[in-house]
Each structure stands twice: as C-alpha cells, then as structure tokens.
Design a protein that fits this description.
The chain is mainly alpha-helical and 132 residues long. It has six helices and two strands; from the N terminus they run ααββαααα. Helix 1 (2-18) packs antiparallel against helix 3 (53-59) and helix 3 packs across helix 6. The N and C termini lie far apart (75 Å).
Length: 132
C-alpha cells in the first residue's frame, strides 16, 4: 500500500513537472477557489492557493488530512522538525527535491503569526492601602 502511494505521488509530481503549461492543467481540473477571503483557498483541502500547493497536496495530504496543516503554525525549522518526526515515526518517505518548495509553502502560508493580546502597561497608578 505504501509503495503504491509513493508510486502514485511520484507520477503526480512527474506529470506536473513535465506539463508544458501548469496553469492550463490546473484550470482543467476545475478547482473551485473560494473568493470570500483575501487569500484564495483550495476548496478540496482548505489550504491557501499557491504555486506549490500541488506539491504540498501530493506530499502531505496523501497520508493525512489537510487539517493537520491548517491547525498548526510553525517556523520553517518547526515544519522541518515535523517532517523529520513523520519520517522517523510514520515512515514518511524522503521528500528529496520537493522538500524545499514544500517548506517554502508551509513557512509562507502557515508560519507563526504575530499577535499581541497583552495590554499596554498601566501608567500613573495610584496605590492605596486596604482598610480592615
């Protein structure tokens, strides 16, 4: 089963890499993109549409649901550690030349976000003693 999965993934990657015009091939597959957000997402997976989306789909969603990507935000090193962990513990194959574009995609679209929920420090505080 694993060999079949690897074989089909390899064929998919080869077909995309030798396609004379990848954009036409993508259009022919009639992927419907949602336009409700500023970032276009693949309707099938919910992943952000990007030039490397199809590599990520071939390498990642072959084994697991795209929600594992959607619910996490890691740095490039963090994603790389996850790949190594999957290779060590779940027999993920060597991504070879596709590892760099996959990491580029994950870092660009699912990197950590900067959020600030901490309030501005208080100033001019008037302390008082509690009366008993």
């Amino acid at each position: 089963m694993r060999l079949l999965s690897i074989f089909l993934t390899g064929i998919g990657i080869l077909l995309f890499s030798f396609s004379p015009n990848v954009n036409e091939a993508v259009d022919e597959r009639s992927f419907v993109l949602t336009k409700s957000d500023t970032l276009k997402k693949d309707q099938e997976t919910g992943l952000i549409n990007d030039e490397n989306l199809y590599l990520v789909k071939a390498q990642c969603t072959t084994c697991h649901n795209s929600k594992l990507i959607l619910q996490n935000r890691f740095t490039r090193d963090g994603w790389k550690q996850k790949i190594r962990w999957m290779q060590k513990n779940h027999n993920l194959w060597d991504l070879g030349e596709t590892e760099k574009p996959v990491l580029d995609y994950l870092e660009k679209n699912y990197g950590p976000t900067i959020t600030s929920t901490r309030r501005i420090p208080l100033t001019n505080i008037k302390w008082y003693k509690l009366q008993q």
